[in-house]
Amino acid sequence: MIADHFRKQKIQVVAGPTTGGIILAFEVARQLRARGIFAEKEGAQERAFRRGFTIDPGERVLIVDDILTSGNSIRQVMAAVTRLGGIIIGIGVLVDRSEQKIEFGVPLFSCHRAETQTYPPQDCPLCAAKIRLVKPGGG
Fold first, then answer.
1. pLDDT tens per residue, range 128-137
2. What residue ranges do the domains of the chain occupy?
3. DSSP line for 35-68
4. Of 37, 38, 61, 124, which has the fewest CB atoms closer than 10 Å, so is most exposed?
């Protein structure tokens, strides 16, 4: 769906953040006949392209990720692309679960929108019912 949505945009590079965007970046790139790359964390708030991945100045870049929640990882990839002189054409995500619309300055396409309701503790129906919070998959 992401590849179809951006097919006419002449995308040259598809970039995603580690780890959720890696497989998605390579598959969308394959379908668009473009290069797929990923940006890794560098420090607390930045991402960088390593392992020989680069973007030439002026290349048309699509940024992809599996899940959009706060937009932080996408913004970090955007900054890494911009530092190298790439032109960000758009953003594609599998699931947008952000609480409110996030503005990135480029078109955003999501395959699915899943609204996530959050509550202050005093208004939470699970808290009122005394249902314990459980974090699945945690150590």
1. 898 887 777 6
2. 2-128
3. EEEEEEEETTTEEEE-TT----TT-EEEEEEEEE
4. 124
